[in-house]
Amino acid sequence: MGNRLFQEARKYVDLAKNADSAGPETVSRAKNALSSAFANSTAAEQEQLSEMQQELEQYDPQNR
């Protein structure tokens, strides 16, 4: 079954990355999902979540 929070974080990060122009709401949801998942994940999952967070920063309108 896997970690539901991890899967949810991956989904929201993918949504933000694949949107034509990721709006602040999409990015905010992805960040919140990553934060929730990080606290409830294994070390290996946390490493992957950190990579997703770095990818997400490229799509954050506040970083542009």
UniProtKB/TrEMBL annotation:
It holds the Pfam family DUF3813. Residues 39-64 are annotated as: Disordered. Residues 45-56 have a biased composition (Low complexity). This is Uncharacterized protein DUF3813.
